[in-house]
Amino acid sequence: NMQFDNGMELWSSLMAYHSKSKLTGGLEFFGGPHTDGVGTRTAAFFATNPSINGNVTVQRILTPQEYGGIENTLQKFDEKSWDLAFGLRGDFGDKFDWDLTVGHAEYKATRTRPRLDGSAVTDYFLGPNLGTATAPRYLINLDRWYRPLSPNEYWSMASTIKYVADSYVDQANFVVSGDLFEMPAGPFSMAAVVEYTRQGYDLKSPSGILPTNRTVYNLTGTNGGGDRDRYAVGAEVSIPIFSMLKANLAGRFDKYNDITNVDDAKTWAAGLEFRPHESLLLRANYSTSFKAPDMHYVYNEGSGSFGNALDTYRCLSQGFYATIPQPTPPGASVCTGATYTYSVFATSKGEPTLEEETGESFTAGVVWDITDDLSVQADFYSIKLEGAVANLSSTFILDNEAGCRTGLTRTRQPFQFAPGSAFCQEMISRVTRTPAPTEPTERITGVRSGPVNQSFQRVDGIDASVKYRLDTDRFGDFAFSLEWSHTLKNELQTFATDAIQTDFRDDPGNFDFRSRMRASVAWQKGDWRTNLFMTRYGSLPNWQETARVAPYFLWNANVTKKITDKASIGFYVNNIFNNFHPDDSGFNSYPYFWRAYSPVGRTVSAQFS
Q1: Most buried residue among 116, 538, 555, 605 by CB atoms closer than 10 A?
Q2: pTM of the predicted protein model
C-alpha cells in the first residue's frame, strides 16, 4: 500500500502457488481385445483354445509388482498459479468514493500416468483376430495369461502419458459509490460499476486417448480451448422511502464476445426492507439472472467416457422390466447380468450454438434479534431457470431410445412420445449399434451425449438459522449457530416437448440433497480460539433407486493460539470420526458411492501465520 497526500491510495498484491501431488488411480486391467480403427474394447469374444472353445468374457487385473512397484502406478500432478493485481482508490469531494482494479491470473497444470497401448496388450495376450470385426475369435495365450508380467514386459507395451492444461483471466473494473442527496428518511445512495474481463483456456490431452484416436487401452479424454471477452456496466440505488421502509433497485448490462449464440443480457433486481421495530426486519426481493455457458461446454473438441450402462432397449424387447413398479405385477422380472448391463462408450462435443441460461428468483423472509445475543432468521426462496446447460446422461439417452423403439417406459408403461416424433428421431440418432449374432439384439457401440439447453427448472425452499452468543468472565465467550436449508419443491423439464416433472424433488433418479444442516460452537478466551463444526447431509436415493440411504454427518474442529502480537499457530482436524459415505450395497461400480460424498477420511493439519 502507498498513501498519497491528496488522499488517494495505491495498492498491489501478488500471490503464487506451486503444488506437487501423486496418487494411485487404481490398477489397469485387460478386459477384452482393443479393436483397431475405433479403439473400443470388446467385452465378449470367441476363444478358440481347445480347452475353452466358446464365448468368453475375460478380465486380467494387473498388480503393483508387474509395474515394478507401487511408485510406478502413480499418477503425478504439478500445479502452478499466480495472481497479480493493482488498485487505485480515492474520492470525489466528500460524497463519492471510487476504486479502480486491474489484474491478471494464470493457472498451469501437468499430469502424467502410466497406461497400456491397446494394440500391444491385445497382441500380447490374444494375438491376431481369427474372426471378423462383428464376430471376433482369438486364441488366448494361456501361458502369458496366468503368469505374472515382468516390469520389462509391462513397459514394453505401456508408456507414460502426459496432460497439459492452462488458463488465464485478465480483468479490470471501476466502482464509484456514495450519497447523491438527502431525503427525509436518510440519504439516497448509489453505486455503479464498469467491468471488462478476458478469459481463456487450453487443454491438451494425449492424442491416444482422444475419441477420434483411442490407441491407449481403456482410457479416453478430452481436448479443448478458446477465449471469451465480456463487458458489463451496472448500477444500484438505495431509497429510504420513510423511516421504516427502504427500497433497493439495481440494473446490469452484460455483453459477451465469443463464438456462442450468447450476445448480451439485461438483468435487474428490486427489493424492500421493512423494519417495524429496531429488532425486527421483514424483507423481500425479486431479481432476474443470466449465465453464459461454461467455456468447455462450448470449446470441447471431443471427449469420451467409459461406463457401465443398462441396455434398456434390449431389456424391454425381451419382456423384462428395467425398473420393477410398485405394486409389483405378478411374474414381473428385472433384467440382470452382463447381457443387459455392459461397458458403453459415450462421446460428447462442445456446442457453439448453446444459448445463455436465464432465470428469475423471489425471496421473502424475516430477521428477528430477540435479544442482543439471540437472533433468528428464515427466508423462503423460489428460483426458476430456463435454458440451463446440462450434459445428457447415457442413461437418459438409452432409456428414451428404448421408449421410442418399444413404446414402453422402464416400468413397461406406455411411452409418451411417438416413434416418428422429432424427440424420438433425436434420441435414436444418438445411439450406435452393431450386430451381435450371439446376443438378443444389436449391441451398443457408442452413445453421443453432449450439452443441451434444458427447457425449465424450478426450485422452492427454505433457509433458516439461529445464532446465540454467551459471554462469561470466567469461562470465556461462546457462540452457537444452527443453519438449515430444505428443498420444498423441484420441477424439471429437459426438453420443451417433455411434460414438466412436478415431483422431481422425490424422483429416485434425483441425486441432489433435499436438505442440509450445519451447526457450530465457537469458544474464545484470551489468546485461545476453538471451533467445532457439524454438517448433516440429507438422505439420497440408493443406486438401485428402490429406497433412500441414510443421512451423512461430517465433523470438523480447529484450535488456534496467538503466540505474539504478530504471530499465531493453529491446528485443524477435518472429518474427526473418519466417517465415510453411507452404506449403499447396490452401488456395484467404482468407487462404490455417489460422487457427492468425499473419499477423504480424517485429515490433520497445522498452520503458522
Answers
A1: 116
A2: 0.77
